[in-house]
Design brief:
About 40% of the residues lie in helices and about 10% in strands. The protein folds into 4 domains: about 35 residues; about 210 residues, 3-Layer(aba) Sandwich (Aspartate Aminotransferase, domain 2), CATH 3.40.640.10; about 30 residues, no CATH class; about 130 residues, Aspartate Aminotransferase, domain 1. Helix 2 runs antiparallel to helix 9, helix 4 packs parallel to helix 5 and helix 4 packs across helix 8. The longest helix is centred in the last third of the chain and has 32 residues. It has an 8-stranded mixed beta sheet with strand order 1-9-8-5-4-2-3-13, sandwiched between helices. It has a 3-stranded antiparallel beta sheet with strand order 7-6-11, with no helix packed on it. It is an alpha/beta fold and about 450 residues long. The protein is flat and about 85 Å long.
C-alpha cells in the first residue's frame, strides 16, 4: 500500500508539471487574440489530480468521491439531502418525476395536472413537465430581472394546478416570499430550478433551500463544473428516497452500490404481486432511469466546491463593475434589476435593448462579437415559438408580452471568474465605442 501511495504521489507531481507547462502555453496564446468568453471552466492541477486519483481506483460509478461531494454540497447549502446526477437537465426531470410517485398518495401529480412556469426558460425546465404528461401554465416575466411575475401567479391557478416550477433566472432569485405564500395558501408544490444560481441568496439564505425540491447543474458554464453533472436537493426524507429511486432504475431498495441489506429485511419484503421475500435489490417501485454521476466527475466537484466562495465573489465583482460602467447607457439599455432581499450570484450580465434605442440588438451583438466579446441570447427566448414546442398542450395566463420582448431584444455577456478587471474595462470600452458610432 505504501508503494502504491508513493507511485500516486509521483503521478501527482508530474500532473503539476504538466499543468504548469499548459498554463504558460495558454497564457502565451491568449496574448495574440483578444477574447472575452461568456463562460468557461476554471480549474487547476488540483482538479486534474483528483480526477486521476479517482481513475486509478477504477471505481467507475458513484463511490467515495460522490459521497464526499454530496456531503460537501449539503454542508455548503445547509440542506439535508443531495443526490448527484449526470446533468442539470436530469435533475429537473427527477424533480418533477418524483412528484408523480404513488408514495405521495393524494399529493402526487397525475397526467393532466398543471404546473405554473415561464416560457422565458431553458428547454429542460419545461421538458420534464411535458415528459410526465403534465400541463404547463405560462405566466409572463419581468423585464430587467427576467423572473416570473409573482403578482400574476395567483390569477393563473386553476382547479388542476398542483405545482410551481420556476428558475432563478440567470442567477437572480425570484420573489421567494410571494411564491412561498401562494404555494402554502393553495397547497402547491414549489420546485426551484437553481441551475444558474448556485451561491445566490434570498433574505440571507441560499436559493434552493425554499422549495420542496431544487436542482443544480455543473455544466462548464455554471458556477462550478464536473463537465456534465448536476444534483437534486431537498430537506424532505421521503422525497429524497423517491428521487433516488427514479435516479437508480426505479428500484425500491435504497442501499448504495456495493452495500447490502441496510433495511435489515432484504428478503422480507412483500411488494406488488411479487412473492414474499423477493430480493429487495431487484424490486422496482417506479418506472425510473439510470441518471447517476460517475465518481470521476464527483472527484472534480470536490475540488471545485472549495473554489466556489471565490468564484461567487468574482462573479459579483465582475457584475458590479459592468453595471457601473454601463449605467450611463440606461436610456438605451434595460440594465439588470433584482429584489431588495436578493443577493444574486450572477450567471451572466443580461441587458435588453430598449424599443426606442436607435439600433437593433443584432447590431450591438455583432459589434461585440467582432470585438472578441462573446454574447448569448437568453436561452430559448419565448420557448413556445421554438420548433419543438409549437404544438404542446399548455395554457397561457394573460399574455407573454415581456417574454416576446426578451426574445427580440435581450442578450447577455459574461461575468464568470475567468474574466479579469482588464477584460471588464475592455467590454465597457467596446460598448462605449458602439454607442459613439451609432449615436453620432
Amino acid at each position: 500500500m505504501d508503494k502504491e501511495l508513493a507511485i500516486r504521489k509521483i503521478i501527482f507531481r508530474k500532473i503539476n508539471e504538466l499543468y504548469e507547462i499548459r498554463s504558460k502555453l495558454e497564457k502565451k496564446n491568449s496574448l495574440h487574440k483578444k477574447c472575452v468568453k461568456y463562460a468557461g471552466r476554471i480549474y487547476d492541477e488540483k482538479e486534474i489530480s483528483r480526477l486521476v486519483d479517482s481513475s486509478l481506483d477504477f471505481w467507475l460509478t458513484a463511490g467515495r468521491y460522490s459521497k464526499e461531494f454530496e456531503n460537501g454540497l449539503a454542508r455548503f447549502l445547509g440542506i439535508n439531502h443531495v443526490s448527484l446526477v449526470n446533468s442539470g437537465s436530469s435533475a429537473n426531470l427527477l424533480a418533477i418525476s418524483a412528484l408523480t410517485s404513488f408514495k405521495l398518495k393524494d399529493k402526487r401529480l397525475k397526467p393532466g395536472d398543471e404546473i405554473i412556469t415561464t416560457a422565458n426558460c431553458f428547454p429542460t425546465t419545461l421538458a420534464p413537465i411535458i415528459q410526465n404528461n403534465l400541463i404547463p401554465v405560462f405566466v409572463d416575466v419581468n423585464l430587467g430581472n427576467y423572473n416570473i411575475q409573482a403578482d400574476r401567479i395567483e390569477k393563473a391557478i386553476g382547479k388542476k394546478t398542483k405545482a410551481i416550477f420556476v428558475a432563478h433566472a440567470l442567477g437572480n432569485p425570484v420573489d421567494v416570499k410571494s411564491i412561498l405564500s401562494i404555494s402554502k395558501k393553495h397547497k402547491l408544490w414549489f420546485v426551484e430550478d437553481n441551475c444558474d444560481a448556485l451561491g445566490s441568496k434570498y433574505n440571507g439564505n441560499y436559493t434552493g433551500m425554499f422549495g420542496h425540491i431544487a436542482t443544480l447543474s455543473f455544466y462548464p458554464a455554471h458556477h462550478i463544473t464536473t463537465g456534465e453533472g448536476g444534483a437534486v436537493i431537498t430537506n424532505d426524507s421521503l422525497l429524497n428516497r423517491i428521487i433516488n429511486s427514479f435516479r437508480d432504475w426505479g428500484r425500491d431498495c435504497w442501499c448504495e452500490s456495493g452495500s447490502d441489506n441496510n433495511c435489515k429485511k432484504r428478503f422480507g419484503w412483500k411488494l406488488g404481486t411479487l412473492p414474499l421475500g423477493y430480493d429487495h435489490k431487484y424490486a422496482y417501485s417506479h418506472i425510473g432511469y439510470n441518471l447517476k454521476m460517475t465518481d470521476m466527475q464527483a472527484a472534480i466537484g470536490v475540488e471545485q466546491l472549495k473554489k466556489l466562495p471565490n468564484f461567487i465573489q468574482k462573479r459579483k465583482s465582475n457584475f458590479s463593475r459592468l453595471y457601473a460602467g454601463l449605467k450611463v447607457y440606461e436610456d438605451r439599455l434595460v440594465l439588470p434589476s433584482w429584489q431588495k432581499k436578493a443577493n444574486p450570484s450572477w450567471f451572466c450580465f443580461p441587458v435588453t435593448v430598449r424599443e426606442n434605442a436607435g439600433f437593433k440588438r443584432e447590431e450591438l451583438t455583432m459589434f461585440l462579437e467582432k470585438s472578441g466579446i462573446q454574447t448569448r441570447l437568453i436561452f430559448a427566448g419565448n420557448i413556445l415559438r421554438q420548433p419543438a414546442f409549437l404544438d404542446i398542450k399548455c395554457r397561457i395566463s394573460g399574455n407573454l408580452v415581456n417574454t416576446d420582448k426578451i426574445m427580440n431584444n435581450s442578450f447577455f455577456v459574461g461575468v464568470y471568474p475567468g474574466i479579469d478587471k482588464e477584460d471588464i474595462k475592455y467590454v465597457i470600452n467596446r460598448f462605449t465605442a458602439f454607442f459613439r458610432s451609432v449615436l453620432k
